[in-house]
Amino acid sequence: MSSATAMPQTSTPPAARAVDLTKVYGEGETAVTALDSVTVDFDRGRFTAIMGPSGSGKSTLMHVCAGLDSATSGTVYIGDVDLTRLKDNDLTRLRRDAVGFVFQAFNLVPTLSAGENITLPMDIAGRKVDREWVDTVIDTIGLRDRLANRPSQLSGGQQQRVAAARALASRPQIVFADEPTGNLDSRAGAEVLSFLRRSVDEFGQTIVMVTHDPTAASYADHVIFLADGRIVDTMDDPTAEAVLDRMKGFDGKGRRS
Amino acid sequence: MLRSAWRSLLHHKLRLVLSGIAIVLGVGFVVGTLIFTDTLNSTFTNLFADTTSDVVVTPVQEVDGRGFAGTVATMPASLLTDVQAVDGVDKAGGQVFIDGVTVVASDGEVLGTPGAPQFGSNWEDDEALTPYRLVEGRGPATAGEVALDSISAEKSGYALGDAVSLVGPQGPLAPTLVGIFRYGTSGNLAGATIAAFDTVSAQDLLLGGQDAFTEIDVVATEGVAQDTLAADVRAVTGDGVIVQTGQEAADEATAQLTQGLAFINVFLLVFAGIALFVGTFIILNTFSMLVAQRSRELALLRALGATRGQVVRSLIAESFGLGLVGALLGLAVGVGVAYGLQGLFGAIGAEIPNEGLVLLPRTVIVGLVIGIAVTVVAALAPAIRASRIPPMAALRDDIALPTRSLRLRAVAGGVLMLLGLGSMTAGAMAGGGSGSQLVGLGVVAALIGAIVVSPAIAGPLVRVIGFAYPRMFGTVGSLAVQNAERQPRRTAATASALMIGLALVSALTIFATSAKSSINVVIDRVIGAEFLVTSQAQRPFPEQVAVDAAAVPGVDVVSAVKFVPAEVNGSGAALVAVEPATLGSAITLDFASGSLAEVADDGMAVDTQTATGAGLSVGDIATVVTPGGPTEYRVTGLYEPAGLWSGYVVNRASLGSVGVDLGDSFVYVKAEDGADLAQVQDRLTAALAAFPTVQVQSQADFLAQITSSVDQVLLVMVMLLSLAILIAVLGIVNTLVLSVVERTREIGMIRAVGGLRRQIRSMVVLEALVIAVYGAVIGLVLGVWFAVALQRTLVDQGIEVLDIPWTGLLAFLVLAGAVGVLAALWPAYRAGRLNVLQAITTE
User: Fold this and answer.
1) Which domain holds residue A180?
2) What tens digit of pLDDT does each residue of B679-720 get?
3) In this structure, is residue A77 part of a structural domain?
């Protein structure tokens, strides 16, 4: 059993927390353990990157923590709500109200304009949009003049920035980003990552990002390394070089298994 | 590449089923129609071949003053003796066979389908000379005995030994039932009845005692050819009669019947056409979506070195396989449809003798060819478009298939609709039969035009129809509208079945309502008499009826009307023989010139339309040939035609004894002022009990009878059209399921950011609703348009009132919406059940 406390304890409770989280796909002989008793805290106002080679369970960790997938055992909290006890409708509401998402691609509904995509979670909830906050977010992503455009009229980087703005627009407790720059060139990727960074620094947003790109990870405050469904290491204030070095070590271990 | 096509087919079972259903239904409808009509033809062909002897001799039906329909053409019995003496004749028999003996069932109801013939005939014992095959009892031998065909016997409830209530040309009879027979192998002739008497009685009852026959049947001696014998017989009989071989006679009878049934074929094939048309759209739709979904896969094939031709051929092979399977299943469905049609026609009284369905090789070939051709043609355009995807697109996301502009469609559809409008306007101005044809052409043009133009207007119209959605259903509502609007071609194609179905249903309904209102208006305006005596059997009744009715206490005036076959200035027509003195208080005719009173002696009133057609005006002399011979009438008045009232109106007295035996068709009865009407009606009914076919109707009864027959026709049409609605439902289900599949990732995204299952379901249902309502609105607009054109065209034919049943049309709209919602339930459920994580990570 390996468990790692990701962060030194701080006075405020974490934005999200996984305790002894295990996820097994399939049954019997074909069973694959994607997460193996993972315990982790995602602290408020911090930008955490989850790294690891393919098949390390990093995406699964994010999906389960975000309420997109169910846990086989263990518990997941967002704030003080235990996700593993929620039915689909309550889980959906929690995602809607407390979580923001940025996926690798296809983040936007093609029939809605950029502006409408940004306010979609609140519109679906029938909640009043906090116009002032949304304007602030829009100005930060710098796409005010493209708000009326449909996603197909935006570049890939612009689409991801709109997706990031949507994730922030409802002031969620936590934003999960799944390889948000995976489909972008380095310049567009940098724009998106800078925006995420600013949202932590300026707005105190909590962000958890899955990535395999050391440069992307270097934008985070803290990096968690996963391999074979376990947390194998952590790093504070990462740089691209340091992350890359650490990754090389894990790759070797990964091959050995 | 063939293997790839086959794998792809098997891999997408759901898609296979959905697009397959459209093909199955379309082919099933065509095949069912063909089987049904082939069965009809074959049944009657066999019947006539079975029942016809080698040579048939019939009298010439003259139209020159002595041989009108209504009077019976005969040949003297001596001719039979002459024919029997001809060399090569084995045996010959004389037949008496006329339309005019009504069977009244034991419960007092007249038997047989309204309008179907009611035959009276002589009995022939020799089975070689008659199609009658005894089933029970024996043939009638003396006066006072009768045999009935088996179906009439069964339906009327008479058993051997019962007194059968009949009404012959000379009045009621009550002979004893001694035998029951089948006609040929099947038993009956689509609702007709046959009562057979011994030959002498038949001649007495049906031919006024002449020793004569209406047909002579000849059986050839072994080895003598039909045409040789026919020539020999002709040599003996001379030119006064028609001599045909059995084959010719059977062919002629079949041809006449087939012609009579042709309208059914046309009607059914129109529906089959609609089914296929809509089916083609569904297939086209499906393949467009399949190709869009698989664009990446196809592009990958291209990147791996497949040529454009190979991609196209692969998709064509796929559609060929689909078409083949669909067509084969369609053949099976077609058999079911044919049974259903038989049942439907049986239910409305036009029973068709059932000898098993006829499945010709031609039907199978047509079914397969149509199924496969339609599928392949429908798949061709998407296949070609798919082949244009550049190979490198496989590596990019969100491949957009190139789409053509809708402007061309808008223009072409608009032009077609304008042509339709022109044709309908011209038709309405021309009026009558030729006008109706123009209107029909216009309707077809306008329908096709509407289908062509539909994708161009679907977007804006959907937005208008769904304008309240965002306010009522929030974001889910606006997403639903945008989804319907996003692919106007698909929305239009999906709605097209509903559009066509509703256009036809609403046009028919409006027309039927207008017809009923018009009848009501005419009856109200024209008929002043409280009661109307008519025949249930729809054939004339003895003049004694009017005499008896006049004797009933409480009756003020009785006025009888009879129709006398005649020729006016050389063309066939019926004289309406009236009693002007009494008719005036029974009905009100609107005279443009002259008056009813002037219809005296040789005076004649003509309705304005007939007068225009015949070139007659007041003062003209018309030469009229009646069964009594030629006379002259002077046109003294012109009146406006009003429903049943049209044609040449003459004074009964002017006919003298001519047509006395024809009987009356209507007797108007006006009650005394202040009389108890219910009581008078009861007394009249009691007084006329001796005439079983005669019925006493109040004005309301009469109106109800006419309107119920209009309703019955409408019902049959609407039942057939509801099949179009069924196809519409399948089309909507098909489109929604496929578009849910297509939007999997998008739906997953909405669920991830907080869309509830319920909201996803609502989104799909609301999209279906807006599509259905779109189709219904266009359909209703077209329906009203068509009905107005038809009504304007037939104003002079008595459809003088346009009555649009708005609440009924509103009900259609609501129904269409319900159909849409119903069709959406399953796709919506599926959409709601999508696994969020799989949906957003799907390729």
Assistant:
1) 45-68+85-256
2) 999 999 888 888 877 889 988 888 888 888 888 878 877 777
3) no
Q: Would you say residue A255 has pLDDT above 50?
A: no
- The residues facing B379 across adjacent strands are none
pLDDT: is A244 or B267 the higher one? A244
Q: Which of residues 758-787 of B touch A (CB under 8 A)?
A: 758-759
CATH at residue A214: 3.40.50.300
Judge: B475–A105 Cβ closer than 8 Å, yes or no.
Answer: no
Encoded tokens for B334: 């077609």
B674: left (phi over 0), alpha (psi -120 to 50) or beta: left
Q: Do B749 and A88 touch (CB under 8 A)?
A: no
* CB-based contacts of B93, cutoff 8 Å, min separation 6: B80, B124, B126, B129, B130, B216, B217
pLDDT on residue B178: 93
Average pLDDT value over all residues in chain B: 82
Q: How many CB pairs under 8 A join A and B?
A: 74
- Mind telling me how many Å the CA of A5 is from chain B's nearest CA? 27
- DSSP character at residue B494: H
Has residue A116 been placed in a domain? yes
3-class secondary structure, B1: coil
Under a CB-based contact definition with an 8 Å cutoff, are residues B69 and B257 in contact? no
Residue B62 confidence (pLDDT): 52
Selected residues 194-233 of chain A with any CB under 8 Å from a CB in chain B? none
pLDDT of residue A7: 46
Q: Which residues of A touch B476 (CB under 8 A)?
A: 124
ipTM for the assembly: 0.83
The total number of structural domains in chain A stands at 1
- Which DSSP state fits B54? S
Any A CB within 8 A of B161 CB: no
Pairing of strands B193-197, B145-149: antiparallel
Give the pLDDT confidence score for residue B737 in this predicted structure.
80
Most confident of the ranges A240-249, B8-17, B196-205: B196-205
Inside any domain, residue A17:
no
Answer whether residue A8 is part of any domain: no
Asked if A101 and B482 come within 8 Å (Cβ–Cβ), the reply is: no
